[in-house]
Amino acid sequence: MDIDLIHFGLIMIVNIMIGGITPPFGSMMFTTCAITGATVGQFVIEIWLFILALLIVLVIVTYMPSVVMFFPNLL
Hints:
- The structure is a single chain.
- The chain is mainly α and 75 residues long.
- It has one domain.
- The protein contains five helices and no strands.
- It has helices spanning 5-21, 27-36, 40-63, 65-68, 70-74.
- The two termini are 23 Å apart.
- The mean pLDDT is 89.
């Protein structure tokens, strides 16, 4: 599919980060809630801006490979 492996890896990492903090499979979310004693509802209320930021970063990383590949291309 002619996609660079570094670019693909960064797309996967951002997707895993989003999946780790959102229900229903959010392992990082459940771990944080268990440690802090917060409910899932309280966690989601506090984290929604970070989720929005990660979604914006995902769009940039996915559709602008030149931004992602700037430093690797220097090497």
